[in-house]
Amino acid sequence: MNKILILFAHPKFEKSKANQALVSNIPKDPFITFHDLYETYPDFNIDVAYEQKLLSEHQIVVWHHPFFWYSAPPLMKQWIDLVLDFGWAYGPGGNALEGKLIFNTITSGGPREVYNTEGYNRFTINELLAPFNQTAFLCKMKYLPPFAIQGTHRIAQEELDKKAALYGQVLHKMIYEEFDTNDIQQYEFMDQWIEAVNERV
Q1: Which CATH superfamily hosts domain 4-200?
Q2: What is the value of pTM for the model shown?
Protein backbone atom coordinates (compact mmCIF):
# COMPACT_ATOMS: atom_id res chain seq x y z
CA MET A 1 0.00 0.00 0.00
CA ASN A 2 1.08 3.56 -0.72
CA LYS A 3 0.61 6.68 1.37
CA ILE A 4 -0.51 9.78 -0.54
CA LEU A 5 0.26 13.38 0.41
CA ILE A 6 -2.09 15.93 -1.18
CA LEU A 7 -0.57 19.40 -1.12
CA PHE A 8 -3.60 21.62 -1.62
CA ALA A 9 -3.16 25.30 -2.45
CA HIS A 10 -6.16 27.50 -3.26
CA PRO A 11 -6.39 31.08 -1.93
CA LYS A 12 -10.14 31.26 -2.73
CA PHE A 13 -11.24 27.72 -1.98
CA GLU A 14 -14.62 28.81 -0.64
CA LYS A 15 -15.46 30.23 -4.11
CA SER A 16 -14.31 27.24 -6.14
CA LYS A 17 -17.16 24.86 -6.95
CA ALA A 18 -14.79 22.58 -8.87
CA ASN A 19 -12.24 22.25 -6.10
CA GLN A 20 -14.91 21.77 -3.48
CA ALA A 21 -16.20 18.86 -5.55
CA LEU A 22 -12.71 17.39 -5.90
CA VAL A 23 -11.88 17.73 -2.22
CA SER A 24 -15.21 16.22 -1.16
CA ASN A 25 -14.35 13.13 -3.23
CA ILE A 26 -10.98 12.55 -1.59
CA PRO A 27 -11.44 9.31 0.37
CA LYS A 28 -11.42 9.58 4.15
CA ASP A 29 -8.53 7.18 4.43
CA PRO A 30 -5.63 6.85 6.91
CA PHE A 31 -3.27 6.45 3.95
CA ILE A 32 -4.16 9.91 2.59
CA THR A 33 -2.87 13.13 4.13
CA PHE A 34 -4.76 16.21 2.94
CA HIS A 35 -2.55 19.22 3.63
CA ASP A 36 -4.14 22.64 3.02
CA LEU A 37 -1.21 25.00 2.58
CA TYR A 38 -3.19 28.26 2.75
CA GLU A 39 -4.90 27.14 5.93
CA THR A 40 -1.62 25.99 7.49
CA TYR A 41 0.50 28.94 6.38
CA PRO A 42 -1.69 32.06 6.03
CA ASP A 43 1.45 34.15 6.67
CA PHE A 44 3.49 32.18 4.06
CA ASN A 45 5.95 31.22 6.83
CA ILE A 46 6.52 27.62 5.75
CA ASP A 47 7.92 25.11 8.24
CA VAL A 48 10.46 23.50 5.93
CA ALA A 49 11.51 20.74 8.35
CA TYR A 50 7.88 19.71 8.88
CA GLU A 51 7.16 19.69 5.16
CA GLN A 52 10.22 17.59 4.43
CA LYS A 53 9.16 15.13 7.14
CA LEU A 54 5.73 14.84 5.52
CA LEU A 55 7.31 14.16 2.14
CA SER A 56 9.55 11.47 3.60
CA GLU A 57 6.52 9.66 5.04
CA HIS A 58 4.59 9.37 1.76
CA GLN A 59 5.25 7.50 -1.48
CA ILE A 60 2.95 9.56 -3.73
CA VAL A 61 2.67 13.36 -3.78
CA VAL A 62 -0.09 15.43 -5.41
CA TRP A 63 0.25 19.13 -6.22
CA HIS A 64 -3.47 20.06 -6.10
CA HIS A 65 -4.19 23.62 -7.17
CA PRO A 66 -6.08 25.85 -9.60
CA PHE A 67 -4.25 26.60 -12.83
CA PHE A 68 -3.59 30.29 -12.18
CA TRP A 69 -1.86 32.11 -15.04
CA TYR A 70 -0.55 28.82 -16.48
CA SER A 71 0.99 27.86 -13.15
CA ALA A 72 0.09 27.55 -9.45
CA PRO A 73 -0.89 30.04 -6.73
CA PRO A 74 2.05 31.81 -5.05
CA LEU A 75 2.10 29.72 -1.88
CA MET A 76 2.60 26.55 -3.93
CA LYS A 77 5.53 28.19 -5.70
CA GLN A 78 6.99 29.26 -2.36
CA TRP A 79 6.58 25.72 -1.05
CA ILE A 80 8.58 24.40 -4.01
CA ASP A 81 11.25 27.09 -3.62
CA LEU A 82 11.82 26.45 0.09
CA VAL A 83 10.98 22.81 0.74
CA LEU A 84 12.73 21.20 -2.23
CA ASP A 85 16.08 22.25 -0.88
CA PHE A 86 19.50 21.79 -2.49
CA GLY A 87 21.31 18.87 -0.90
CA TRP A 88 18.02 17.36 0.29
CA ALA A 89 15.76 17.09 -2.75
CA TYR A 90 18.35 17.58 -5.50
CA GLY A 91 22.03 18.20 -6.05
CA PRO A 92 24.88 16.33 -4.31
CA GLY A 93 23.35 14.10 -1.65
CA GLY A 94 19.85 15.27 -2.52
CA ASN A 95 18.14 11.90 -2.77
CA ALA A 96 15.33 12.23 -0.23
CA LEU A 97 12.57 12.05 -2.85
CA GLU A 98 14.13 9.56 -5.23
CA GLY A 99 11.62 7.11 -6.70
CA LYS A 100 8.50 8.80 -5.35
CA LEU A 101 5.56 9.47 -7.68
CA ILE A 102 4.11 12.94 -8.20
CA PHE A 103 1.44 14.59 -10.34
CA ASN A 104 -0.65 17.77 -10.55
CA THR A 105 -4.37 17.93 -9.93
CA ILE A 106 -5.60 21.14 -11.53
CA THR A 107 -8.73 23.05 -12.41
CA SER A 108 -8.92 25.56 -15.25
CA GLY A 109 -11.64 27.94 -16.34
CA GLY A 110 -10.78 27.37 -20.00
CA PRO A 111 -11.97 24.15 -21.63
CA ARG A 112 -9.57 21.49 -22.87
CA GLU A 113 -9.83 22.53 -26.52
CA VAL A 114 -8.26 25.98 -25.95
CA TYR A 115 -5.04 24.35 -24.72
CA ASN A 116 -3.32 23.31 -27.94
CA THR A 117 -1.15 24.83 -30.67
CA GLU A 118 -4.23 26.05 -32.57
CA GLY A 119 -6.14 27.20 -29.51
CA TYR A 120 -6.40 30.43 -27.57
CA ASN A 121 -3.69 29.43 -25.09
CA ARG A 122 -1.24 28.18 -27.76
CA PHE A 123 0.20 25.36 -25.64
CA THR A 124 -1.10 22.09 -24.24
CA ILE A 125 -1.64 21.68 -20.50
CA ASN A 126 1.31 19.32 -20.30
CA GLU A 127 3.56 21.80 -22.08
CA LEU A 128 2.55 24.50 -19.62
CA LEU A 129 3.17 22.12 -16.70
CA ALA A 130 6.72 21.43 -17.91
CA PRO A 131 8.31 23.34 -14.97
CA PHE A 132 6.59 20.93 -12.54
CA ASN A 133 7.69 17.97 -14.65
CA GLN A 134 11.29 19.20 -14.68
CA THR A 135 11.19 19.90 -10.94
CA ALA A 136 10.14 16.31 -10.33
CA PHE A 137 12.87 15.07 -12.68
CA LEU A 138 15.52 17.11 -10.87
CA CYS A 139 14.36 15.58 -7.58
CA LYS A 140 14.58 12.06 -9.08
CA MET A 141 10.82 11.61 -8.80
CA LYS A 142 8.56 10.06 -11.41
CA TYR A 143 6.15 12.63 -12.85
CA LEU A 144 2.76 11.36 -14.00
CA PRO A 145 0.12 13.05 -16.21
CA PRO A 146 -2.13 15.57 -14.47
CA PHE A 147 -5.65 15.03 -13.28
CA ALA A 148 -7.59 17.97 -14.72
CA ILE A 149 -11.08 19.41 -14.57
CA GLN A 150 -11.31 22.04 -17.29
CA GLY A 151 -13.95 24.46 -18.49
CA THR A 152 -15.01 25.00 -14.88
CA HIS A 153 -16.81 28.28 -15.66
CA ARG A 154 -19.48 26.45 -17.63
CA ILE A 155 -19.25 22.83 -16.54
CA ALA A 156 -22.56 21.09 -15.83
CA GLN A 157 -23.00 19.76 -12.29
CA GLU A 158 -23.42 16.21 -13.58
CA GLU A 159 -20.10 16.37 -15.45
CA LEU A 160 -18.36 17.96 -12.46
CA ASP A 161 -19.64 15.23 -10.14
CA LYS A 162 -18.47 12.55 -12.58
CA LYS A 163 -14.98 14.03 -12.87
CA ALA A 164 -14.64 14.54 -9.13
CA ALA A 165 -15.66 10.93 -8.49
CA LEU A 166 -12.89 9.81 -10.84
CA TYR A 167 -10.39 11.68 -8.66
CA GLY A 168 -11.44 9.63 -5.67
CA GLN A 169 -11.06 6.46 -7.72
CA VAL A 170 -7.54 7.41 -8.79
CA LEU A 171 -6.46 7.98 -5.19
CA HIS A 172 -8.06 4.75 -3.95
CA LYS A 173 -6.46 2.70 -6.70
CA MET A 174 -3.03 4.18 -6.06
CA ILE A 175 -3.24 3.15 -2.42
CA TYR A 176 -4.73 -0.32 -2.60
CA GLU A 177 -4.33 -1.73 -6.11
CA GLU A 178 -1.50 -2.46 -8.48
CA PHE A 179 -0.98 0.00 -11.32
CA ASP A 180 1.59 0.47 -14.04
CA THR A 181 3.11 3.95 -14.25
CA ASN A 182 4.15 3.26 -17.84
CA ASP A 183 0.49 2.61 -18.64
CA ILE A 184 -0.55 5.90 -17.00
CA GLN A 185 2.05 7.81 -19.00
CA GLN A 186 0.41 6.69 -22.26
CA TYR A 187 -2.41 9.13 -21.50
CA GLU A 188 -2.42 12.91 -21.64
CA PHE A 189 -4.47 13.13 -18.44
CA MET A 190 -4.86 10.99 -15.34
CA ASP A 191 -8.66 11.08 -15.67
CA GLN A 192 -8.38 9.50 -19.13
CA TRP A 193 -6.31 6.71 -17.61
CA ILE A 194 -8.79 5.88 -14.84
CA GLU A 195 -11.68 5.96 -17.33
CA ALA A 196 -9.77 3.44 -19.48
CA VAL A 197 -9.11 1.27 -16.42
CA ASN A 198 -12.83 1.30 -15.59
CA GLU A 199 -13.68 0.22 -19.13
CA ARG A 200 -11.30 -2.75 -18.89
CA VAL A 201 -13.06 -4.16 -15.83
Answers
A1: Flavodoxin domain (3.40.50.360)
A2: 0.94
